[in-house]
Specification:
Helices cover 10% and strands 36% of the residues. It has one helix at residues 2-18; strands at residues 48-60, 68-69, 81-87, 90-96, 116-121, 127-131, 137-142, 145-150, 158-165. Strands 1-3-4-5-6-7-8-9 form an eight-stranded antiparallel barrel. A hairpin with a 7-residue loop joins strand 1 and strand 2. The longest helix is centred in the N-terminal third of the chain and has 17 residues, at 2-18. The N and C termini lie far apart (85 Å).
Length: 166
């Protein structure tokens, strides 16, 4: 029994002395500044381009809020396309709607059909595509594509363009 008491006492004293070692500190690792990945002007690397085609034209009324698809009844909607370019330098949208008789984008498209500088706001639901530095909403992203809502000359009727990715 004395052997066990001596062994336990020796073990406890060894543990006590080993736990009293000097405090070890971790080596100093300097914090590196993040690299500036902004490309020089004129270059636009890693551009992500998606083209959307007009899938549906919905005519919405107070009686039918989900809308009635009228795109098959009128053949001039087929050439309408929207191309979205996203890059580290910014987001642009180009609409190709040469033959559409009415367009919600008529006053927004620059002469010659050039790109429109936009911002994709993913902090709101549904996500919103706005013209840069303004509150003008071009489209909202819902499920698998963009939706643009507009009115013509009726207060009760609303039209929606639904774009789907190609």
């Amino acid at each position: 029994m004395k052997k066990y008491v001596i062994m336990i006492a020796a073990t406890l004293s060894a543990c006590a002395f080993s736990s009293c070692d000097e405090e070890t500190t971790l080596p100093y690792i300097p914090v590196e500044k993040p690299e500036d990945n902004t490309p020089p002007s004129g270059e636009d690397p890693e551009t992500y381009t998606v083209t959307y085609r007009l899938d549906k034209v919905l005519l919405c009324s107070p009686d039918n809020t989900n809308g009635l698809d009228i795109s098959g009844k009128l053949d001039y909607f087929s050439p309408l396309r929207m191309t979205l370019n996203v890059s580290p330098l910014g987001t642009t949208v180009v609409f190709e709607n040469d033959e559409v008789p009415f367009s919600p984008f008529a006053g927004l498209i620059p002469e010659g059909g050039g790109p429109i500088a936009c911002e994709l706001d993913s902090d709101v639901t549904p996500n919103v595509l706005r013209i840069k530095d303004s509150d003008t909403v071009l489209a909202t992203f819902e499920q698998d594509g963009f939706t643009t809502e507009f009115r013509l000359d009726s207060r009760l009727l609303t039209y929606k363009y639904k774009f789907k990715s190609l």
